[in-house]
Amino acid sequence: MNIISLFDGISCLQLALKDAGIEYDNYFASEINKDAIKVTQHNFPNTIQLGDVRGIDFNSLPEMDLIGCGSPCQDISGLNNNGKGLAGQKSSLFYYFKKARERWPNAKFIVEQVQGKDSKIISRELKIRHMKLNSLLVAPQKRNRLYWSNILVRELPKKSTLLLKDILQQSVDSKYYQSEKWLKWWEKNNVHQMSHSYSSLNADYAYCLTARMYASWQGNYWRDEKGIRRLTPIECERLQTIPDGYTSIISDNKAYEAIGNGWTVKIISHILKYMK
After folding, report:
1. Disulfide check for 269: which of 16, 192, 217, 241 has CB 3.0–4.6 Å away?
2. Do 184 and 89 share a structural domain?
3. Are 100 and 116 in the same domain?
4. Would you state the pLDDT for residue 84?
5. Of the candidates 217, 220, 195, 223, which has an alpha carbon nearest to the alpha carbon of residue 209?
6. What is the pTM of this model?
7. Longest Cα separation, the chain
8. How far, CA to CA in Å, does 248 sit from each of 202, 242, 255?
């Protein structure tokens, strides 16, 4: 079995294949972020990196059985509201997935994207309706995403009973705790009640992990007897159902970015199980 993953990131598709028990011969990845590639090659050294999707000659590659696509969401996301949608410089890269489908029309595929501008256009382009799946089904993270696939999924994953407190590490380095200056800023700006804040204090679930989690105003936080701290990279990995320490080869800030850009592995593996 040959697989190609466009915008592969840290290869969450490869993790999902492993979780679903699906064996494959060759895994081709298109990615340009050096830190993401570093994580992938550390965990899956046999990955064949192809570089920028815009430079791939699909005709030079063998037949593919599965195509993965997690193209950039910046122009589609409602957080940016730039109005560009699929016409934007980043989100328009989705059309390279269409080229891959034209090359391998019989291949199975999975496309993941945020809900936002031009979601309906994606459905029309792919001639298929999307599935709306929340990561809360498999982990304590509120993360709604749209999935398009020609793999027939017959039922939802069994609902996870895990709460945010259940995935927390028992011992956390002091560097994750916030300073007195930060706490004063927090209280002054009432951050935990801002509509666009991704912060949570002792809630049952985390808010959607993002690529900007390293920023103080877009983290997920937890309060304990020592104070208020941000969730650690390992805890964020658990919220994405990624193995502990998977991104430990890169810095914390880069790990937050990579994890936020990644897929929720067990959502993808649930879809893949219907390939069998």
Report:
1. 16
2. no
3. yes
4. 66
5. 220
6. 0.91
7. 59
8. 25, 12, 7
